[in-house]
Structure formats: structure tokens, C-alpha cells
Design brief:
By secondary structure, the protein is of the alpha+beta class. It has 21 helices and 33 strands.
Amino acid sequence: MQNGRFGQRFQRQFTNILDRKDYDVRLDPSDLAPERALVFEVIGPLAGFANTARRIDLEWLAEQLTVLEGVSEYLPTVGGGGDDDDDDDDDVADEDDGEAFLETLIEDADPTEDVTIGRLYVGMPTDATYAKLRSLWNLYKDGKPFPEHHSDWWALFGKLHDLRPWGPQDRISPDVRDWLARRVEVSPNQPVQIEIDLWYRAEPATRKAATALLKSRIKALGGEILDEAELEPVRYQAALVRLPFQAAKDLLALESELAIADEVMSVRPQSSFDANYQGVVDYDPATSPPVSPPPAKPALAALIDGYPVENHALLSGRLDVVELEVAARDAPVAERFHGTAMASLILYGDLALKEEVIDRQLKVVPILKPNAHGGESPPADKLVLAMIYRAVRDLKRGAGQQPPSGPDVLLINHSICDEAAPFTGGMSAWARTLDYLSYEYGVLFVVSAGNIRDAFTVQGFDSIKAFRDGEAIARGKAIVLGVDKAKAKRSMLSPAESVNSLTVGAAHSDGSLEALPATAVDPFAAGGLANIGSGAGLGFARAVKPDILMPGGRQAAQPSFDKGLLVHPHEVGALGQSVASPGMSLASLSKVRRSSGTSNAAAIATRAGLKIADALDATFDDAWRDKRTAPCLLKALIAHGGAWGESGEALADFLPPVSGRKRLEQRENISRFLGYGVCDVDRVVSAGQHRITLVAEDLIRLEKRHEYRIPLPAELSSRKELRRVTVTLAWLSPLRPGTAAYRAIGLNIVGVDGRSQLWSGVKRYKGQPPIGPTRRGTLMHAIYEGNSATPFDDDDHFVINVQTGAKQASGLTQIDIPYALAVTFEVAATINADIRESIRSRVQPRVRA
């Protein structure tokens, strides 16, 4: 056991009621029993609290905390090591690097801010333990000495600002109170709409009673329940409520009956998404958009979005609109911007690039409609999460006696997000819903990371003119550093944290060739960086998120000056991707406009998935689509072409932290913005004599290992010609909502001995995320390089293994987990033989016994 780094461990036996390990420690309180929920207000980052727990031998608490924080690989003694601790290169933390990383997390707090920056929600196993811990805290607060056997708790209490039951300040968080304050100030005497999440109880009668009680409270306040939903699979019970102005003000002061209602878990703004196109300049292309014959193939993808212009010249005959809750009459044709743009991007890509159209129909389920201020949003009287749930269920299962409207759908484009809910560490109900639907129905959600419109500070410029006239590369670095410094307030928007979904950020790239107006500033010269409005990661448990970048259109850096230079993302007519657009009249059905953002990037990723599906059809006919592994194949192959490239190298020169001892942190920081990088899907589906991509798919159970042995040709017998191996593993996991083991089952890529050192002499390429964050989601992507040794066994086989594991194995041992594996070999151009054909002729498809 490695423990010298933290000093001598105390070995002792607890003899009191708190000596047990079935406490439930969470960042998300949604699945706790409220009558036994305690709130730990932590002084400083949670990593520091975990460190203290570890020092005093509270391993059960330290382990859950470090898993939640995603830093267990830097604490080798927690949980007896773990698979994040071994690898074949210096990517993995040694003793010094691990402690340096942990200390950085502990020092993250801004000393100028309130010291209370973290909350933990701890479900006590019994009423007695709940009462006992509260009594100990009260003794500590009163300055009393610790009782016998409880000195450890006194040490832990020193890291707490407060320990208390769930209360009004938890039901209505400081962020929600800030939002309420702005809302009542801007719109005095106007009603306010909020969402109320109820504690989800297992017993239907208890849930029914909670709903009845909430209705009576709302009625007494003069309010109205507009919509309600109860989704048992994701343990979600909520209501959309309209409150009178005074009742909303009482919420702000924590004086409302809702603030103390036992059945209420939280109050928050109504989930909102507003696709606003005001200020974006229309333009007419020099020639009319190309018109091609209608598609011959059925839909494999669905778009859950706004109502499209079905008869647009580019879209006519290509869309199958499924009307569930938003009908054509709800969406005037001249205002159907977002759904039209997304459908255009999925089918055509950026029109300026003149790519081939996807020869398939596209299912569209509208859930957005025009609003009063020129944008599109979900209906004001609906819970959007429930709308999405019903949309997917209709596509894959059907409603009532009706058959499924999209039984063949494998990809669901989800280019919307909750602008009222930036990701802050816990899993949102929206993300949990996507994760459940993905695993239950065997679909891949392609989710946008979210657009951040707020301004951020850029250092080094004393005026707007200095910024506009600045040297382009230096200015670009200053912009990146400004975004990095503000990243805590520029995180992805829920449900981008969804672990089963493919989350897509927007690369600063499009096909526009127009010159910028003199007043506009293009922040970056190259297209491999995320655009400045793209939401930043990481994801749940500090997993890699966004997963990938796709072209999302360029955005200008709009400067302003107020006690320093501020920049905010800005769409201008000369930049962005060209997309189909509504015109001002029914006769104008060939309009095109420019657009940018993460919604666009997600649509481009969905398009990539359809191109891959066509390639798989050509290789395997269509039998692959009927397997549970089909969405995993698409996810693996969309991401398989991802790489940081020159953008990663450029960021490594200056993005903090630049210290050599903190290389892991820097690469983790780079992955916040790049994920696994921009994906070149054409490279994945195309062939070359020096490159071949192999795919495998299967079902695997817990604690099993699948071995793949790939025979390699004689042309590689020199064993020094292999240049690069790229490996991507994707799967769909069942869930344990609310726990540190939310992603119930993890898969890993291992060598013949079950360890992470895959092959002798082949190293992980440095220009990619560190290994730890890649293992915390459901998508692993790694690039290996080497030319001095061989990754082959004695029979000239390339060997790779897929292995499963789980933090909590109970109830999971008989579950089959679908996965897909993609492996690409690239060799030096000095090899004259066609290694693609050589390997292909030696690999035979097989079914695992």
C-alpha cells in the first residue's frame, strides 16, 4: 500500500455507530431520501476535503469523493490502486505528479471569493446515524471536545463551513436566487415560470401524494401548474409552474412555502433554449441551390428540433416530419430557421463546400416553435425534457396502438440544450434521460456542447483599436487565455454531460471565402480550435467532454471596453456555414443564409454518422443495423478520425499550466476545449495502401475480456515500419443515477496481461488527452506511435483486448454490454506493398462463441 506520501496512517477500529461504509455521498442529491439527507458545505475544493478524509483513515468517504472529482488515478491508495495508474509511458502520474495534481485542485479556490465553494450531499444509512452526526457537529460548533473514538470527525469538521439538513437554501440555490432577482427587476409585476423538481420516491402512492400537496400549495399562492411529468426509468418527477409576481419575490427571500416544502427538492428556471437569428445577414448565392432527385434510402437519423421548411428547394421530398406536440400551424414558414438549418447541414453539410447530399430521408420531430422575440424555443407551457422523452419513445416504440414512427433510427440529432443549466458537476435530469433512452432503445444521441454568448475579459489591450489592430497570432493567444480564465463560467450546457451520448463542440471552421467587414475580428487564423462561443468541458467525473469537435462555423470576436477589454462571440454575415433558410414569403423557397455554433457542429457530426452508415452498408450489407452494437459502431467511427493536430501543439506552448511537472493538467485543460479533436471522417471511410481500418463489435459481460488477434503481413516483418496505431472503443452503459458509479460499467483497452501497457515499444502520442479522463466516459480514443519495436506477438499477430469493470457489480453480472472497437494501422510510405489489401485478405469475420 502506497501511503508514505501522506504520512503515517492511523490504524484503529471505530466502536461507535458511525463505523460503517454505507453512507451515500453525492454531488447530485436527486436520488437521496430527503429525511436523511445532510448537506456538507465544504471549505475549498472537494479534492482537499477528500485528502483530509484520507489522512484520517475515512477511506469510504475519500474513495467516493475522488471518484466524484475524477482524480482517483492521482491517489493510488484509494480503492487499492485502479486501472488509471498503469501505462507504458510517462502519461501516468508518478508520486510527484500525482501530488502536484492534487495540490493544484486544492489550490484552485480564488482567495478573494467566499471560501464555501463546494457542496456534498450525504445520505445517512439510518435515522440513528443521521441524528448522531448532527449531534456531533453541534458539539463541534459549540467548541466542545470530541467524544471518545471521534477525533477523526473533528478533523473532518475543520474542513466544513456547515453541516445541516436539506433546507430552503438548497431548494433555491444562490444561482437561482440571482436569476430570480434579475427576473423580478427586469419584469416587475409579471408572473414568473419555474420548474419544481420533487424528491422522487419509489412508492407510486407517495409520489401521488406529493403531487397533490404541491398542487394545493401552488393554488394557495395564486399560481398555476402548466405541465407535469413523472418518468420512472430516470427517477424524475417535476412540474412547470407559473407564479404571481409576489410569490416569486417571496421565493427570492426564502420566505415562500415552497422553500420549506418537504416534497420539493429544488426550484429552478424553466429549461430554456432560444435559437435567435436576429442580426444574422441573409445573402443570395450567385446561383440557385442544386436540386437533386429525392432520396432512395429510408431514414437512419432523426432530428429533434424546430419545424423545418419542408418545401425548401434543398429539402423537398427529403424530410419526414412527425408531428407530436408542435404542428405546422404553430410555426409560420418565414420563422422556421433552426430546424431548416439543421436539416440542411445534416443532408448537405456546409453548402459553400458543395459536398454530396446524403441519399436518405431524415425524420424530423419538431419541439421548437417561434417565440415573441424573433427566436425559436420549446412551447412555454411544456416541460422540454418530457417532450424529448415522448419523441424518442414515439420513434422507437410507438405511442398507444400506433407503430414506431422511426423504427430504423440509430442517430438522433440533439442540437438543443438548457441555457438555464450550465453543467456544474452533477448529472442533470435531462442528461440522465438521454442516457437512459440511448441504452434502452439502442440509439446514439449527437448532442451539442452549447453556445456561451457571455463576454469575457482579454488582457493586453488598452483599447478597442489596439485589439483590432493587434498582430493576429498574439491576439489569438490572448483570446484563448481569456476564454481559459473564464472557463468556469463558460462550461457546457446540459445535457452535454450525457455519458452515453456523443457531445460535439464547434470548431472555428467553415467554407466562407468572403472578406470580413473592417470592424469585425476573426479570432483565429486556423480552423482546428473551438470557436469562442463553444461550451467547455470537462464532463461528469472529469471525463473528456466535449467528445469531439466538428466544423461549426467561424464567429467574430466582438470587442467592447468597460474597465478593460471585453470580447463576446458574434455572428456576422461574412462568416459561418451556408445553410438552407426560410424566405419572407411562401414563394421564396431557395433562400440560403449563414449560421454558426455548436448546433451546427452536432448536425455535421450526425451527417458524418450517416456517411459512415453508408460505408458500413457497402461493407456488411445492412445486417449490422439490426444489432445492439450499431450505435456503438457509429460512435466509435465518428470519433475515430479525431486528433488535436497542430492546434494541440500550439495550445501546449502557452495554455496554462505550462510547467513541465504539470503536463497532465495542461493536456486535461486542452481537452476541455478540443475533446479528442476535430474528426476527419472522410479519412476513416476512405482507403489507402498504407492505411487500413478494422472494426469489431460484440456484447460483453462484467469481468470478461475479449481478445482480438489480427494477422499482419510479411511486409511488416522488419518490425520497424509501423508508424501509428489508432484505437477507438465505444459502448453504451446502464446507469446508477445519483451515485459516484453513475456510469455503471466501464470498458478498457488492455494488453495480453490485462494491463494498460498494450505493446512493447509503442507509446501513446502526447498530443491527446491524458489517459485518466479518457476512461471515465463511454468513448476511449488513443493514438500510439513507434518505429523502434513491434506491437506483434511471436506469430506476427497484433493483439488487443477489451475488458470490463464496475465500481459496484451487484445486479450487473448478467447484463450484456454492446460495444464497438475500431483500429487503424498506418505505416511508412517506404513500404511499397498494399498493406491494406494484405491485411484484409488475412482477416476473416467471425462470431464469438
